[in-house]
Amino acid sequence: MTISVRKADFSEIFKIRDLASVTIPTSYQNNLTTEQIDYLEDFLYAQQTLADSEQSKQVFLIASLDGKDCAYGSFTKEGPDLFHLQKIFVNPDDQKKGLGSALFKALLQEISNEHPEPCDIELNINHHNQGLKFYEKMGMKEVRIVNFDIGNGFIFTQKVLAIKN
């Protein structure tokens, strides 16, 4: 099995949206209602939202396994020495094959390329999310709890994990 990770360009928005339609429902099925998952998908992956992400300098990476796109992740710069991992999602059929780890390491490397000085990298995650153990295994530590209002009456209580880069 060969894993490769590449920086996505704007023309790959539809690939990211297609991956999201498979990964998001599975990732949140034990934490959110169907209505909340549908709203979250629309909120994060509508074409205009993805276009806005391009304008806001959100960087997307796509991971492939034997040439098939199976995972994606992204980050944004939040401050002079602060970056935020927006998401890492792996197709459920391709989990436990090293894609998440490869993508996580590639995201940190991409941040280092953009910002060679030491910085903090944070990530928000629901405390029931199955990815929590993965991020902790990758060295991230809880630094605080926040409430995140995504609109439409949906408020997520999330842990903020951080790692130094």
Write structural notes for this entry.
The structure is a single chain. 36% of the residues lie in helices and 38% in strands. The protein has five helices and seven strands; from the N terminus they run E-H-H-H-E-E-E-H-E-H-E-E. By secondary structure, it is of the alpha+beta class. The protein has a seven-stranded mixed beta sheet with strand order 1-2-3-4-5-7-6. Helix 1 runs antiparallel to helix 2.
How many distinct helices? 5
The class by helix and strand makeup works out as alpha+beta
Order of helices and strands: EHHHEEEHEHEE
> Kindly state the mean pLDDT as a whole number?
84
Indicate the overall shape: globular
Number of strands: 7
Lateral arrangement of strands in the main beta sheet: 1-2-3-4-5-7-6
**Share of helical residues:** 25-40%
What is the CA-based Rg, rounded? 15 Å
- Summarize the main sheet: 7 strands, mixed
- The oligomeric state is single chain
- Measured by DSSP, the beta-strand proportion falls in 35-45%
